[in-house]
Hints:
This protein is α/β, with parallel strands linked by helices and 282 residues long. It has a single domain, classed as Alpha-Beta Complex (2-enoyl-CoA Hydratase, Chain A, domain 1). Helix content is 44%, strand content 14%. It is built from ten helices and nine strands. The strands form two sheets. A six-stranded mixed sheet has the order 1-2-3-4-6-9, with helices on both faces. A three-stranded mixed sheet has the order 5-7-8. Helix 1 (34-48) runs parallel beside helix 2 and helix 2 (97-117) runs antiparallel to helix 9. The chain starts with 9 loop residues before the first strand and ends with a helix. Bound molecules: zinc ion (ZN). Zinc ion binds next to helix 9.
Amino acid sequence: xxxxxxxxxxxxxxxxxxxxxxxxxxxxxxxxxxxxxxxxxxxxxxxxxxxxxxxxxxxxxxxxxxxxxxxxxxxxxxxxxxxxxxxxxxxxxxxxxxxxxxxxxxxxxxxxxxxxxxxxxxxxxxxxxxxxxxxxxxxxxxxxxxxxxxxxxxxxxxxxxxxxxxxxxxxxxxxxxxxxxxxxxxxxxxxxxxxxxxxxxxxxxxxxxxxxxxxxxxxxxxxxxxxxxxxxxxxxxxxxxxxxxxxxxxxxxxxxxxxxxxxxxxxxxxxxxxxxxxxxxx
Length: 282
Ligand code: ZN
């Protein structure tokens, strides 16, 4: 039985020209269930279509930014139909076998992240504590990442036999040699190292995370709107010309081959792994 612990999994606040979107499942380290993801999509749409918003600030309540996709909270709603599919992939709950996870993740994981990355409005991420697997996807779609000193980044999903999260940007976010280590070992990368590698833009003390991130967002929001949109698109085009989108398309299918292999071997797409398994093994 799915039991949601909140009716507000994402908070929305306007601070001058900045829309602050706050992940709000602190009890479960902001694990991403469909309820949260679609609330975030609604918030992203609201911010992107508000003429008075020039920048989005994506933040998270509680100790950790995000533990990734929800694989074990009482609010896990993996078996639920997608509330309002944004793409035209159909309802995964009517599908069987590997198709079921494929449909769901095309829409709710890869699809939503690509949509947010393509938003005309730039975004700044404020990351504290753990940013694990699906958590990376939310930070990576943002244009600038500000990290607290206690932040760490990891993708331990190889422990469940899956070659990285659905949004496979690893070798674009860091040097391919480092990305291999990041994925093969699955260790937590401290904010300071992520900064040295260029994966995050600033490392600040925990207490000033929101003020520092908000100050950056406000500077962007004060710039000419259309120019900022064009600059953002310029980087998206450049990354895609370098193969980011094509890589992701190719690896998404490997990701689902791995889910299918798990389903075949264990009856479960993630091989029965729980958040505790991931925490213990990472
Ligand atoms: Zn997956």
